[in-house]
Amino acid sequence: MRDEVRTFVIDQLRDMNYDVDGIDDDTTLGPSGVDLESLALSDLSVRVEDRYGLRFADDESEKLALMTVGEFTTMVADRVAGATTDNR
């Protein structure tokens, strides 16, 4: 699941016209990494929410900007797995 989420995130960043060359799990989403500003981070969050049926709390946006790509994809994969387990 984590690899699927990571591929989706990278594809969405590419679709949002970000340079994804050299992005790895240690690249931060915010400053000095992908450099997503708040609007772009919101766009990515909505795309992930729509694709995986999750919801991020309003107060999570600052935390998301400080996460690495690896941390973000792991968090999303864990939430998806948790939601799948909850629905059984």
UniProtKB/TrEMBL annotation:
InterPro entries: ACP-like_sf (IPR036736). It comes from the Bacteria. This is Phosphopantetheine-binding-protein. It comes from Micromonospora wenchangensis.
